[in-house]
Amino acid sequence: MIVKMKEEQLELEKSKAMIVVEIIEYVPDSVVIKTIIKKSTGNINAVSFDTGEKLEEKTSPFDKFIQIIDGKAEVIIDGVSKPLETGESIIIPAHAPNSFKANDRFKMISTIIKSGYEEVS
């Protein structure tokens, strides 16, 4: 299966209320990533996965906070499957191999904060 990944910069109007689950759509046979905030100190992305799609295993030097905002996701951290449903969250530890799998379609918010690591030994 070929995964189509579509990344979009999204400039949201500041100081205006939004419903995050509505700013990103499902696209057949695709993973869609919309950047909400991107700074040198971290970023926030809205991501949608169509059924059957996955992101291959990777690692990050920073902790990543994941919140499922629609559907059901399978997050694999260090080879251990963590099923999550709408409203559930998980922190993927820095340097932990991780991947995402959509047995059902789902949407999530991914937040990475890059500052503060210099304080941890």
UniProtKB/TrEMBL annotation:
- TM ranges: none
User: Cupin type-2 domain: which residues?
Assistant: 48-104
Q: What is this protein called?
A: Cupin domain-containing protein
Give the originating organism: Halalkalibaculum roseum
